[in-house]
Amino acid sequence: MKKIGREPKLSLKEKRQRSILMGLIEHYIKTGKPVGSNTLKETGFKSLSSATIRNYFTDLESEGLLHQQHTSGGRFPTEKAFRIYIEHHLDSSELPEDFKEKSAPLTSFASKEIASYLPQAAAAVSDATGLAAFFSSPRFDHDFLNEIKLIPVGPERVAALMITDFGVVKMELIALEKKLSSFSIKRIEEYFHFRLHSMDQKPENLSEEEEEVAHRIYNELMVRFVIGHSAFQAEDLIRTGFAKLLSHQDFKDPEQVAASLSLFENSHAMRLILRDSFKRDALRFWIGEDLLPFSAVNPQCSVITIPYHINLQPVGAIGVMGPVRLPYKKLLGALKAASAMISKTLTDAIYKYKITYRQPDAGLPVLFNDKIELNMSKAPILLEDKTFQTP
Fold this sequence. Notes:
Enolase-like, domain 1; alpha+beta; Arc Repressor Mutant, subunit A; Beta-Lactamase; three-stranded antiparallel sheet; transcription regulation; 11 helices; 3 domains
């Protein structure tokens, strides 16, 4: 990816050449068709002759910015040209016409279930841009288990679904000594509810054997939940909307779709891309071959990322993936607006509900009150409850 920076000063000829390149890309973005000199002349360059425009085309082609499939045909912008186009419009604040309506979920959230907000935000960004969206997220604290459900996955295993106050769902596989009946599972789930909500009345009809099994599973899940929440190596990753890419005219080639999907499903690559934006605290973009460090083949797509903040501190990043031919001016404006909305919503929730968060391997959580401080006043968490002892 080319480093983002200020554009160099251009000569008069270079400025005209750049203007022609921008005009050609604008027309190509709208139509998806090769652009000829006569077409470009009629769409904003009437003061130039077709021959002069063709001369500029030749210069731009020699610089690797345009290519021509047929000698008598029009020109297409190259990946290199799109990089220049994006850099030229980095300050764009244009928005898609329906952005306000589709981005409403970004600002309408008002709940302590803060972890459920980011998946909603990712879906809203995907809807507002018509692209696949992926987010990185810190780990939010003050989240407690609210419910545990058991689903049999074999004669001696169950999948435990742990649902938190913030709406996060985690799954753990638990080995059993023997198969549990559906009635036993229901009574064990009632026991979990009794333990999670500190109820006075223990579930009725729970046999001694079932209580022993329930107690063992409960303790095992508590240990896994606490360890998994406090010690994690990578940012949480949220992905949605890849199917939207199939509606794009330029996203019909099966090999291109497969390569892009492979990249989108590569969690490690997605985290590295988002981390680049988060660490630099800057908007970043990758076009086509720029993505080869993350993909075995050129996915022939584009990726743009931008960080979001809590109390002005970068805590994660927003990314979108789409074809190379995109309305970048409106897309850049939409991503900047979305980042600002998400940052404000998260900061407001952090203050209102006194929620802490942590980054991977960052150790102690961060709490925002009137100033940034380390939240070190937490009571120790009991990893194993030994109130129930078998004889």
